[in-house]
Amino acid sequence: MTILILCLTLVFSSCAANPAATNNQTTAPTTQNSTEIKADDLMAGVQAAAWPQTPGALDAKTAAAINRFAARLLAISAENKGNVMVSPASVFLALGMTLNGADHETKTAMLEVLADQGITVDMVNEASRDWMTLLTQTGAKTSLAIANSIWFRDGFEPDLTFLQNNADYFQAGARRLDFNDEASTDVINGWVKEATRGTIEKIVEKISPSTVMYLINAIYFKSEWTTPFEENETYEMNFNAPAGAVKTYFLHRTDKMSYFTGNDASGVALPYDDGQFTYFALLPDGEVTPREWLAAQNPDELFGSIAGFMAQKSNFTVALAMPRFDATYEDTLNNELSALGMGIAFDPEQADFSKLNAAHSLGLYISEVRHKTFIRVDEKGTEASAVTSVAIDESADMSDIQLTFDRPFIYGIVDRSTGIPLFVGILEDPS
Q1: What is the DSSP letter of 364?
Q2: CA–CA distance from 228 to each of 225, 379, 384, 389 (Å)?
Q3: Can you spell out the DSSP letters for 93-108?
Q4: How high is the mean pLDDT of the chain?
Q5: Stated pTM of the model
Q6: 3-state SS class at 370
Q7: CB atoms < 10 A from the CB of 392, how many?
Q8: Which residues lie closer than 8 Å to 146 by C-beta, 6 or more apart?
Q9: 3-class DSSP string for 210-278
């Protein structure tokens, strides 16, 4: 549990990494699957701005704001029972795309959650672009791909500035589908499966009639340890889970490592590949649980402190034993994000996403932020992925007429060629 909860920052430790090779895969969505369905490319006429090949390190204030968001998201997600693993990077980028369609109080609330005072939408866009560039310039033994896509209901007219910003700063593809066709979910999920190398197969279960748009981020990470674990030193041990001891396989290695202790916890940092990415595991002292420990931390300092620990030299010989595991996690983040302060974005009556549609009309709101993660830790290294989907729905206020059959009504089935009813009746009690 302790290791699982805190291993989410695989992609966070590289904010100041030096760019190397080009591995950037923030590509447009494809529709290569067995289902034939028309998908209009809305980015066909959009010329995206070129990305800087060697951006500098993230602005310190912006990086601190993203770390604060990560710590707050982890802390509030930890209120869920059982294993928890979230990707703050994926959630941040999906909501960053969505932010470009928000205005007025909705934009302010989202900025306060994602960033900090004085940080603008343009700053979030630029930081997202540069961060994705830095993250995906990896070493030879590391694969890290980030992909963004937007999917619109057929008939919905997106705002051109919204499309341009998502092309310029997120390299997002945008396509229009017939959401009434059940095959649309296969197309979207096919893109998700491809973007995560098959580790996450779907994010959309069923498209609601009121849903007009999905904004999706996918992150895939795979890397080998700098020093792998020997398979012949993997054996079963007891893991003391909350419900009692369980037997599981543990990885073992005795070596010089970056070991840290302090703030009522001890931990170890294990570098991947060329050191651009690092895995850490942190164990609270005594009988303190991970959730209790997290609740006592300052979100403004948590990941900055951990980054400082990970920067220490490998000057301790550590006899390390940690579980080998596979884990998946999924959650709808509406409650968590509302608690963090952006509840207005989920309110059909108050949300303002007028910059999403060409008419700049109100009535659009976030109906669901869906999040899925996967991780595998073994002797060779780590494979992990995450998908975040932001569903945008339109409220009844966007319709010219609202008609609800919530009292007795007449119904029938009519032969259209003659106008003769085949069946006709009155429904007084549907129960």
Answers
A1: E
A2: 5, 6, 17, 34
A3: HHHHHHHTT--HHHHH
A4: 84
A5: 0.87
A6: strand
A7: 26
A8: 24, 25, 26, 93, 132, 135, 136, 217, 218, 219
A9: CEEEEEEEEEEEEEEECCCCCHHHCEEEEEEECCEEEEEEEEEEEEEEEEEEECCEEEEEEEECCCCCE
- Return left, alpha or beta for 273; rule: phi > 0 is left, psi -120 to 50 is alpha, else beta: left
The number of residues in the chain equals 431
Closest CA to 67 of 94, 102, 92, 95: 92
Both tokens assigned to 377: 């830790």
- The pairing of strands 142-153 and 211-224 is antiparallel
Cβ(234)–Cβ(251) under 8 Å?
Answer: yes
Distance CA 415, CA 287 (A): 73
What contacts 34, CB < 8 A, 6 or more positions away? 186
Task: Kindly compute the dihedral angle of the four CA atoms of residues 125, 171, 395, 114, in this order, to the nearest 10 degrees.
Answer: -30
The arithmetic mean of pLDDT across residues 141-164, rounded, is: 94
Tens digits of per-residue pLDDT, 311-348?
Answer: 777 778 899 988 988 989 999 999 999 999 999 999 99
